[in-house]
User: Fold these one by one.
Assistant:
Number 1:
Amino acid sequence: MDDLCTDCGKQKQWTPCMWCRKPLCEACARFELLAEGCGTVVPAYFCATCVVDPFCNPNAIFWQMKEEDSK
Ligand SMILES: [Zn+2]
Ligand SMILES: [Zn+2]
């Protein structure tokens, strides 16, 4: 049995949220590049909840604006 995305519950899970580890499908995972130390960027995937939480994602403010626009 395939594990389903916990956000939409329809598609197969593809990657876990980097912060809360819940499984996400390709459509629901939010891609983010996190700056780490001296000029290194690390690719990361967040769920819809964590991506707008400044405690989880240092770039949350940009996502808050983006998610507002798409409403
Ligand atoms: Zn999904
Ligand atoms: Zn999450």
Number 2:
Amino acid sequence: MKAVVYEGPRQVSVNDVPDARIERPTDVLVRITATNICGSDLHMYEGRTDFETGRTFGHENMGEVVEVGSGVDKVEVGGHVVLPFNISCGFCKNCERGLTNYCLTTQPDPAAAGAAYGFAAMGPWAGGQAEYLRVPYGDHNCLRLGEDAAEKENDYVMLADIFPTGYHATEMAGVVPGDSVVIYGGGPVGLMAAYSATIKGAAKVMVVDRHADRLKLAEQIGAIAIDDSKVDPVQAVLDQTMGLGADRGCECVGYQAHDPQGTEDPALTMNRIIASVRFTGGIGVVGVFLPADPGGPDEMAQQGKVPFDFGLSWFKGQTIGTGQAPVKKYNRRLRDLIAAGKATPSWIVSHELPLDGAVEAYQQFDDRTDGWTKVILKPAMPAGKAG
Ligand SMILES: [Zn+2]
Ligand SMILES: [Zn+2]
């Protein structure tokens, strides 16, 4: 089968790899209909992780079930499913508590927790930017979709990662109706955090970024766009909140935070968010930070150390939540919002491409080319055709 293969820093190919197949009775085999390129794919694409060459990308996957193992009870051939990017078992100590983002069964390293498709340090699992995907513990990991699966495909595929991840940022920040919320980072996850805050009834949502295409999308859902290449974003948030700071903040940038000139500072958004959120406010950090970053700008960054203003945050009595999203905690409810027509996260999609469009798509997305806000790969689309 064809898949998107990592060849080395800033190099992918679309190549033949061994077919995905049922390996255990609890597996489900899915023919991929839609699979997104994610900002966290770019960390690996840029060679900033120890992702092995020859492995396949793709953790935001949706498709049609073509085969089920003998131990699968609920999922049926012909059904359409969307897969949380977290691969989890459902029965380990963390999964039992709903923390499927830190599954202990699907991560083979006993010193680590959590697994994902096609992801550095998240287990050996193949990615879904491919024609087919093996889904372990299929009954547990497949979220079944209704008859509108194809019609609303671009909405439902966002349930694999970015919609629940954005929602999780607002959960960790503690967003409730009437809150003012500042989102740092207007990429797909930041836009989903803004969207989630809006769905939850936030009174004021502010999105800080510097890319015109992203800020325009933020404004389309009623958020206030703050361009940090033009104004001091902390001052802009204070000006919007009577000098008090926002009730809640969501960090959706991560360790590759940089100023508009491109100088990296992994503490940049953390410090800005701590300064932008009021005393006793809440902060949810879903931007990726790593325990080691060999390509980081200085020795501290290379060791995964981020010198952020903990003293100020402590002084303000802020609550900070961190880590990857437990997608299964939210995906069913968010699916039902989509099914009911009350959420349409596909508004951020800029490109639908066949699998062989991945080579160009990775390059354009990595370059932050204007207008490339979210790319969906559709393996059934004829090669060379853009939609
Ligand atoms: Zn993702
Ligand atoms: Zn587990």
